[in-house]
């Protein structure tokens, strides 16, 4: 199974983890944008990337 990723429509960056997204809370949930250029990212993509296991030292999910 391939890992989730998204190609930013603004700058073309391949977004593969939540560290490459900026999250803004709003009354109806969360909105996501590309860290590099600020282009809006679909919420479905942002949520999938936010739950992705990356195996880093800060990934505490079992």
Order of helices and strands: EEEEEH
- The coarse overall form would be globular
Number of domains: 1
Distance from N terminus to C terminus (CA atoms, Å) equals: 19 Å
State the secondary-structure class.
alpha+beta
Overall number of strands: 5
Q: Count of helices?
A: 1
**Side-by-side strand order of the widest sheet:** 3-4-5
Task: Return residue spans where pLDDT drops below 50 for at least 5 consecutive residues.
Answer: 57-62
In helices, the fraction of residues equals 10-25%
The averaged pLDDT comes out at 81
Biggest β-sheet description: 3 strands, antiparallel
Radius of gyration: 12 Å
Residue fraction in strands: 25-35%
Give short descriptive properties of this protein.
disordered C terminus; 13% helix; globular; three-stranded antiparallel beta sheet; alpha+beta; single chain
Summarize the structure.
With 62 residues, the chain is an alpha+beta fold. It contains 1 helix and 5 strands; from the N terminus they run βββββα. The chain has a 3-stranded antiparallel sheet. A two-stranded antiparallel sheet has the order 1-2.
SSE layout:
Layout: E1 6-7, E2 14-15, E3 21-26, E4 29-34, E5 40-41, H1 43-50
């Amino acid at each position: 199974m391939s890992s989730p990723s998204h190609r930013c429509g603004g700058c073309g960056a391949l977004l593969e983890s939540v560290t490459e997204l900026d999250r803004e809370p709003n009354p109806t949930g969360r909105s996501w944008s590309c860290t590099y250029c600020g282009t809006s990212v679909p919420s479905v993509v942002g949520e999938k990337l936010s739950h992705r296991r990356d195996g880093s030292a800060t990934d505490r999910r079992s």
